[in-house]
User: Fold these one by one.
Assistant:
Number 1:
Amino acid sequence: MQRPLHFRPTAGKAYIEAAGGWATALLVAAAGAIHLYLWFDYFHLVHVVGALFLVNAAAGLLIGAAVLARRNRLTLLAAGGYAVGTLVGFVISTRWGLYGYRETFWGSWQEAAGGVELAALAAAMLSFALRLP
């Protein structure tokens, strides 16, 4: 018997969608938590960049909570945008400097944050793709 074109397995896909949503939310919140820790550790002393770390931390925690609460395409786009924006800001700060502060590209916290943000982006993209009609 041939499957109709609109056939979608529901149990397996629903489990993968839920796992992807949880992974996205936790990874985005973890990126926010890393930035909050770094703000308390040192960046509260850096003029403009310190405030951006605090904004980034708040955004990561709020977007992570929103993804957990809603898990729709809009919140997944916000999670992906957060990850991309954070990575772009990091690259700009290492390559050219940002508001007079120039970050180093390699280091334990840079690698941890970058890895979490790349994983968050991948999870958000996968979760978004699974929700397409």
Number 2:
Amino acid sequence: MAWRFAIPLAALALALLALPGPGAGGTGPARAAALDPAILARTLAQASRLERLHALIVARDGVPLVERVFRGPGLDVPVNVKSVSKTVIAALVGAAVERGVLEGPDQRIAGLLPGRLPPRADPRLGRVTIGHLLSMQSGLERTSGRNYGRWVKSPDWVRFVLARPFTEGPGGPMQYSTGNSHLLSAILTLAAGRSTLELARAWMAGPLGIRLPPWQRDPQGFYFGGNNMRISPRALMRFGEMYRNGGLFQGRRVLSATWVKASWTPRTVSPFSGDAYGYGWFITAACGHDVYYARGFGGQFLYVVPSLALTIVITSDATVRTRVGGHRGALKALVGAGFIAAARRADAANGDERDAGCTLEWR
């Protein structure tokens, strides 16, 4: 059954403006809990009509202004976030670098995967680095798309990825491949001597105060490094807020500001969307504001817009491709012409003339 508002939309939107002031790292009480009521009401009405949309959270300066379940599990129930998992894996790599478990993005992976390289390996495999895996620039044939099924049915996922032919040189164009992220999960486990689940709970879930249940593992026991993690919408919001605040959550350092900056530095371009890509994050812009986002199959999204103090979580039916039926475009409109526009309009109303005249078009 489609979700319906319990009170008139305009009244609901106006009520949101009366929420408490900003959280840590805020930009001022006038802006902290402000979204333009008219744009917000229209956007939430549009959201309610999206049959595959499950849940939506919008926070400004750490204050949740929208927390809605349209259908599906509640906001505290872990759900499959699909390839948003890649962004979490990238964060774990950063945490491993900070702790000296890994040297950094320039470290070559061959020495981190002892006994797992194929016989007569292509010499280019010796040039692949951790950074290449993070930015999807390993050059190895993709294990996503048409190759995904064959890969996950193989008896050794790590060896399968490493045995792929090179279709580009290391450091070349982006080739989105879940196999890259899975190699990172195996590397984390082998380097730290602890499973990726244990590391994620110790380095991320614990400091953020969230639950992280076990998820799928490969035949060798490595946790899937790029798919099928289960994280609740509220937990994902905390993860996004940590990034928005430069690696801090509620005043506690979870990830270094240096790694956040490195993750949000464009390194390549997606051949599918044209958006830039860093370490586990896609990068675009809306109305002159930089937008960083993680995405997963079916319409799982985490958006962070630091200059507007916005963090947005979207979960959807994970069984249908995002672009089918225009779902991807509809979600994009909710974010750009909806919540980003509502934040800008509120800022303009409060005297921030920099946000006047927005065209609401994405780059």
Number 3:
Amino acid sequence: MDMEEKLQFVKSIDPEGGDRLSRLLERKSLLLDRNVYGERFTGRQFSLVFDPLLASAFEKAQILELLGEGDGTVEWLACRLDLDKARVFGHLKDLLKKNMVEIAGFEERHPVFRKKG
């Protein structure tokens, strides 16, 4: 999946997050020209900042999409997305802070997450 497809997917699941990424991408040419301090970014420098942001937003959107189908634990989500459990847990903590997911209950001692609203 290319960058534009990932961005469109993020926008479809998290419009606010997708818009923030789009605004940053729109400023790419300005940043390559010069920033407010008169410094110039290279294409590589921009990619070093933008690519991890897009990857993280894409993974969070995938988590939200799966939780839209049903509740799940960190382990279940990690297995379905082929991601490290710690990475999934980090994304879920961020999504909890943003009030996009909630803890629906527990399976044994593991929290079960649900997409809000």
Number 4:
Amino acid sequence: MKKDERRVECSTALSPSLASPIRTVFSAASWLSVFVFPILALCHASPANAVEVSPYSGHRYGGSFMDSNTSAEFEVADAAAYGLALDFDLETDKQFEVLLSRQNTYLSTAGTFTGNPLFDLTIDYYHIGGIYMMPGSERVRPFLSGTLGLTRMAPKRTDLTTENRLSISLGTGAKIFFGKNFGLRFDVRAIYTALNADAEIFCSGGCAIKVYSNGFVQTETCAALMLRF
């Protein structure tokens, strides 16, 4: 009975290993269906509303937790990130954005020089938001961006379950056009993922970490090939 109760306490943050990926897919799909389909309909109705597709790669930094039971600190290793940004024209200087991003990394205990790796970890962001294009030339357009959505943290261990948390990002960057329909895009964004203080994460019967934190922040820098249709 005690074991069942422990699992119930963790259920607000986690789900069984099979249900978690399915829940994540449906959660992401629901976000996209609610916001992307109306924008696609708008773009289809008006040829002036173009769509930009920007597959990107870059690097993601930061992210740490502290265990309230042991005071041990855990860090997410800096690692490469890649993803896709979809931008839909709304006005001359405004765009609706769908942002998908992935990082394959690992969680380790914090150390002065090197930490002790605990397990591999995949961190995904499923976000929606917008871009405001600041004044610039026809070829170079600086911008500000803001998105919100879901963070998915999936340990590469079968005995640990996946975390799904709300997150928000703020960023800046520039789009450089080499022609009407293609160019390069550069981004720097900070992503905050919310965690309840004293939340238990990465659970399976028992929990790996009892977090002493209200969240963690990662910074992402990236470059993208931008195609405009």
